Amino acid sequence: MLSQRIVKAYLMLAADINPVEAQKQLDSSIGKFEQNVSRLSTFAANDEIRNELEKVEDLWMKFRVTALSKVHEKTARKFLRDGEELLQLSQNVVDKITEFSGVKGARIVVISGRQRMLSQRISKYYIAYYYGLRTPKIIESFNQAVQEYENALKQLMKHKGNTSEISAKLKKVNSQWTFSKVGIKNFPKGKELVPFIISVTTESMLVKMHEITRLYANLLNKQMK
């Protein structure tokens, strides 16, 4: 999620979309990513996880320099590509940790957590297009992220293990998602884009999904005891 949020905030600054909030998100996400990599490296359970983390660390060093540099279009294009690679490497770490845990039920936590990433991914590509990075690949990736978010949200809402609290929170996310799709449906019609609204609603969806993921993780912890 943080890899996508960093690129999104970077592009918000480039496109002059809510720059104060964008800078805040960029700084906090860089710090959090750095902290998470350090913690995971300390507690890596086996060589496979450790090796995947080293790949993340190698790219992160370069990625962070760009994230903190002055924004311009050429840098933004490369940053977008590097963000894709960092996301994949980070996902490899998640997959290895999930595999190592061997815990039944962990999958629902992963799906919920992935929704946080997808919310930022959707916003990232929307803003990239608004900024002028208008390629077929960006449109395709945006549409794919939207479809993945939609499918996973339906899956979460139908999950039989949901508590009443989780179900209520998922309904709120679904309401925001429905609102977001009003702006999304205009993509990629340049003159009708609403990047500020999309950035705000997807950020709110991120916060709500973070809480829902925590609740799923708590349920999983109780089942393991």
Q: What does the model show?
A:
This protein has 225 residues and is mainly α. The protein has one domain (2-224). The chain is built from eight helices and no strands. It has helices at 2-14, 19-43, 47-67, 73-101, 106-131, 136-158, 164-184, 195-224. α1 (2-14) runs antiparallel to α4 (73-101) and α3 (47-67) runs antiparallel to α4 (73-101). The protein is globular. The two termini are 29 Å apart.
Considering the chains and any ligands shown, give keywords for the structure:
single chain; 225 residues; mainly alpha; 8 helices; 84% helix; globular
Annotate the secondary structure layout.
Elements: H1 2-14, H2 19-43, H3 47-67, H4 73-101, H5 106-131, H6 136-158, H7 164-184, H8 195-224
User: In one word, what is the shape?
Assistant: globular
Total domains = 1
Mean pLDDT: 92
Largest sheet: none
Question: What is the percentage of strand-forming residues?
Answer: under 5%
- Determine the N-to-C terminus distance: 29 Å
**Number of strand elements:** 0
Supply Rg: 18 Å
Number of helices: 8
How much helix is in the residues?
over 70%
Structural class by sheet pairing and helices: mainly alpha
Low-pLDDT residue spans: none
The SSE string, one letter per element, is: HHHHHHHH
Quick rundown:
The protein is an all-alpha fold. Helices cover 84% and strands 0% of the residues. The chain has one domain.
